[in-house]
Fold these 3 entries.
Entry 1:
Amino acid sequence: MTDQDTSAPFECEIAARVRDVNLEGHADNVELVRVLDEARFRFLRFAPLVSADGVPFTGVMAAAPGHVTELVAAHHVEYRAEVPLDPNRPYLVSLRVSRVGGSSLDVGLELRLAPDADPCVLAETTVVLLDTTTGRPWAMDDDLRAVLSAYAGTPVPLRGR
C-alpha cells in the first residue's frame, strides 16, 4: 500500500490458553492461527477505536453498512520461532492494513511474546467484504477506506515475496 507505515498498528493482547499447548510443550500452530484470527476479528468488529476527529467507535467494520460482513479468502502464515506455552503470558498481536482493494483487504499480523521481541509468527490474511443481501462482494465505500487508511502499513515481511 505504501513504502512506509503511515500510522501505528492496532495492537492487542490475547490470553494464552492451556489448550494451546501440544505434546511437545509449545503452542500448537493451529491454535496460533486461531489467536491471529481472534486478533483480526477484534480489530474488525470490537476494537475500541477513535476516529481522526476524536469520535469513538467500535471496530473498523462500524464504518461499513450493517449488511456487509467479511469472509477470509486466504491465510499466509510463517512460524519464525518456537512459542513456548506460558498460560500467564498473553500473546501480543499487532495488525496493520497492508492492501485495500475494490472489495477486499489484506491484514498483516505479527505475534510476539514480549513488546521488544522479534515476531514469532508473521501472517497476512486476505478478507473479502460480502454484501449479505446479494451474496456478492461489496464494493468498498470511501467511509470504510478512510477508517482502514488510519491503520495502513507495509506488508509483513513474509519469505518469498
Entry 2:
Amino acid sequence: MSGAINAKIARVGRMGERHKIGRASTMRDLDFVPTDVIIDDISSDGCRLSAVHGLAPRDRISIGLPGFGMMTADVIWAGDGSAGIRFNAPLGPYDIAGIRAADTVIAAPFPACAAPRTESARVEGWSLSKRARSLVISAAALAAWALGAGGAWLGIRLAGFF
C-alpha cells in the first residue's frame, strides 16, 4: 500500500480534534536514541510529527510532550519526513491545554553519543586503594553521625531537659 493510501486510512479512524502547536520535541526509539522532531499538531489520541526519518508503521516510540512528560506511542503512518502517531493512553483536555501553553525546555541537537571518560579526568595525587577509600568513607559517615548526636545532646542540655 502506498504512503498516501495509508495516510487516508489512518485519518478515517481519528477521534479527537487536532490542535496546531508547532513545538520542538524529542522522540526516542526502542533503543532510547534521541531524535529532535517537531510536533505539528496534537489531539487526545495522537499527533503528527515532522522532521522524522527512518520510522515505519507499527514502530513503537516515546515522545516528549512539553509541560507533560514522556508518552509512549505507536507509529500509524510515516512518509516524506512526517509521521502520525497514536498515544498508548489518551490525553485529557487539560493535558492538551497544558501542552499548548508550555515552553519547550531544551531545543538543541543531541550528540550521537556521549564522549568517553578518559583517565585524565581523575584527580591527580589521589591514589587510594579500595580498602583505604572504604575506611575514609566510613570514618566520614561516623563523624557526621557523632556531630549530629553531639549537637542534639548539647541542644537538649542547653534547653534544660536534663
Entry 3:
Amino acid sequence: MNPADVQEDLRRLLEEENIGYLCTSDSSGTPHIAPMFFYYSFDTHELFFISDRKTRKVSNLLEVNSLAFTVDIRDRENPFNNRGVLLRGELVKLTDLSMELSEKSRGALRLFSEKYQGFIDAKIPGESLIQVVEKGESAFIRSFQDVLVTVSIYKITYWKGPFSVVFDPEKIITPP
C-alpha cells in the first residue's frame, strides 16, 4: 500500500462518510456500540459528536473514558475492497450545549453543522445548528439535553482488505 494513497483514503473516509460506530464500555467491561454522526479534526486530532447526556454511551464515557470509533465501507461482492478506519481515543470534554460555549466548541459545532446541514435542516427548519445553540432557547436543545463530546485520538488504524497500517495521528500528513 502506497503511504500517500493510504493517507488520502483515510482522509476521505473521515471527511466524506457520514456514519461511524462508537464503542464504549462501562466499568464492568460491558461493551456498547452505537452509530453516530461525527466530525474529525485533522488539525487537533479530535473526534466530535453530539449526544443526549442521558445516553448509555455518555454514561459509559464518564465511567471509562476510552473508546473506539470506526468508519468503514463494505463491498459485498469483493471483501478485498472493504476499507475503513479505526480511531482509539480518550474523552477530553463534554460541553453542555445549553450553556455558553467556548470559541473552540463553537468552531467544532460550525464544522459539524456544515457536514450535516441536510439532517440538521430537517430537525430545525430554517436554522443552522450553531444558530440554535447560540440562541440557547430551542426545544431541540432543551428537550434532548445534548452535549458536544470531544475525544482526543491517540491511535489510528487504516485497513483495506486484509492489509492494515497503524498511524500516530500527529504523523498524518496534512495536504497544503
